């Protein structure tokens, strides 16, 4: 646990310096290697170029730690991946709710689970401000302390015309719903577009910009491969021979 916390804290420093938030650092076994997945988010999502830069900075920071005699992640070869959160990841912090503004979210309180649309959060982050009711147009405040679980829902049909107009007029959501007439089309095109190549994406990618809804997948923005020689020492080289690779994976996992 102490070792995991060490790498988590180091990754958090690197990510914060880049102007983003570290949501999670996950280490998974993959045969003789490990997959180190660094989940990063920001107010406007995680652009591809930012993910690649964070991946390079993390790789350099981990390499530097290894030169000081600290074996990264148990001293075995590992692949470093930088990704944005998937749509199915639970919302637990005020910033998660703020970044989900305009979206449908299933919230669970002592009264049960219901679906609301987020407008934003109070300035102190203690209250979630939503649209609810039969037609989804009634403003309501829900204390964050009363929410035991929250998760973004897939919204294939998009908001109704009445709801879109409310979102367009509200300053917290106006940037995402600037044109009420074509917002549904804009959301669909944004969600189905692969950020790496601008083509329609049928591989189940996530939604790094948080501009709409797609699926529960994460999108893989950057990847570095770290290997070990037979003597257990780390080197910088090419991916094909199991050594470090400074390339980034732009196609997503």
UniProtKB/TrEMBL annotation:
Region (Disordered): 186-253
GO CC annotations on file: cytosol
Main location: cytoplasm
Domain annotation Ribosome maturation factor RimP C-terminal: ranges: 91-156
Limits of the Ribosome maturation factor RimP N-terminal domain: 11-87
Biased composition, class Basic and acidic residues, residue ranges: 219-253
Highest taxon listed in the record's lineage: Bacteria
Signal peptide extent: none
Biased composition (Acidic residues): 188-218
Localization per Swiss-Prot or TrEMBL: Cytoplasm
GO BP annotations listed: ribosomal small subunit assembly; translation
Keywords on record: Cytoplasm, Ribosome biogenesis
InterPro entries the record matches: Ribosome_maturation_RimP, RimP_C, RimP_N, RimP_N_sf
Family under the similarity heading: Belongs to the RimP family.
Its job: Required for maturation of 30S ribosomal subunits.
Official protein name in the record: Ribosome maturation factor RimP
Gene: rimP
């Amino acid at each position: 646990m102490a070792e995991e916390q060490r790498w988590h804290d180091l990754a958090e420093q690197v990510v914060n310096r880049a102007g983003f938030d570290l949501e999670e650092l996950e280490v998974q076994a993959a045969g003789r290697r490990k997959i180190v997945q660094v989940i990063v988010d920001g107010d406007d999502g995680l652009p591809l170029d930012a993910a690649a830069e964070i991946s390079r900075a993390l790789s350099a920071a981990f390499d530097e730690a290894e030169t000081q005699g600290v074996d990264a992640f148990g001293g075995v070869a590992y692949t470093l991946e930088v990704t944005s959160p998937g749509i199915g990841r639970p919302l637990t912090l005020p910033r998660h709710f703020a970044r989900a503004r305009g979206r449908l979210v299933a919230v669970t309180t002592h009264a049960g689970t219901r679906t609301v649309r987020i407008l934003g959060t109070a300035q102190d982050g203690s209250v979630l401000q939503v649209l609810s009711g039969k037609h989804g147009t009634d403003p309501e405040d829900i204390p964050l302390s009363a929410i035991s679980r929250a998760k973004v829902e897939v919204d294939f049909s998009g908001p109704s015309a009445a709801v879109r107009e409310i979102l367009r007029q509200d300053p917290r959501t106006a940037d995402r719903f600037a044109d009420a007439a074509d917002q549904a089309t804009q959301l669909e095109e944004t969600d189905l577009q692969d950020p790496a190549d601008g083509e329609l994406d049928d591989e189940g990618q996530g939604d790094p910009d948080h501009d709409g809804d797609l699926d529960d997948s994460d999108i893989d923005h950057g990847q570095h491969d770290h290997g070990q020689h037979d003597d257990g020492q780390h080197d910088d080289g090419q991916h094909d021979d199991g050594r470090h690779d400074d390339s980034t994976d732009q196609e997503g996992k």
